[in-house]
Structures are given as structure tokens and as C-alpha cells.
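Input sequence (203 aa), recorded before submission:
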Amino acid sequence: MPVVPVSPTLAAVGTSGTTSPTQALKINLALADQEMNAARTSASLVAAQQHAQLVIDLYVGAWGRWFAASQAVAPGGGQGIFPGERIPGPAPDSGAVLPVGWGLRAYELGDPPTQQAVESIMGDVMRWNSDPRAGYDQIAAAVTSADANGSQIDRLPGTGARAVAWARLILVKATSVEQAQQYAGLGSQATGAALAAVQGLRP
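Predicted structure, C-alpha cell format:
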């Protein structure tokens, strides 16, 4: 796994207590789209994989599956778009709960257009809320079963789930920069659609 640098811009996302969930969601989606497009134009496989990992970090957050950056400089202040599947802090009996993620926060507090946008990104919102591990398992299964052209990925519900899956393909199945660029090009369709879904939403 390549060492993944996290820029100061990424580290600062979501650290302000005045940032609304919808605004934080927009910022994470915009940065993820930026990183996927950077992977698409990368000059080396390692560079493409670094950008792909940042896409994943922005989507899953510090307590989600496949997160690789240091939690001290986690994108989104630790919160991803999807909920976490690990409880931060001490033992589970301490009262700690799974991090909800910006997607579910925006859904819970948002108006109908915001909820529709979040559904288009996350897919089955209720399942992500009740069983985040099942959501991650579905992405993992699609990546495992995908052939060299990335079949199975487009069957995932939600543009965000597809974005994470394409990023994972870059990390675990791309064997050349050309193949990574191909996956990133398809991934950028997913990240771009996810970003477009939140444009115009109220903060």
C-alpha cells in the first residue's frame, strides 16, 4: 500500500464547528471528485493509487473500512460521507457510538431534495444507518468479483458506493498506470454525479 500524503486542505475539512452537514458533504464530495480526476491524469501507477486512496478516505472517514491516512490529519476532521464501522475511542461499553458520517447527518436534518440527493449517493440509506458493515461488504464483494473491465461496479446502488469501488479497483487490481487511468475515468463519472447531486442544495 503506498504512503498517502494528506494535504492541509483535506485535513481541515469539517473541522469547523460551524460547518453544516450538507456543506461538509458538499466539500468532501468536491474534494473526492478532484482526487479521482487527479488519479485519471496521473503519470504513474503509484500516484494514481495515492489519489484513489484519498477518494476512499474522504468517503469512508477515519473509522470506515479501507481508511489509510493518519487519524491525526483525517479528511473531514475524521468524518466521512459514509458512516464508520469501528467505534472510536475506548471499549464499546464506554458509551461511544459509531461515527454517523456527513451523508446520514445531512439526510436526517435535510429537506426532501437533500434526502433524495443523499439517497442517490449512498443508495440504501436505511441499511447504511442500521448496518454499515453490510454496506461496506457489498462494495467489497463487487470489487472482488469485478473483471478487468470493472464489471459488477455499476450494479452497486449509489454513486458514492461506485466511486469507492472504482478507487479500490485502482488500489487492488490495476497493474499499470493505463489501467488505473481507465478505472479512474469511470470512477470520475461516479464522483462527478455524486457532486452534481448536491449542487444547489441549501446548506
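Checked by second reader. Residues 177-198 form the longest helix (22 residues).
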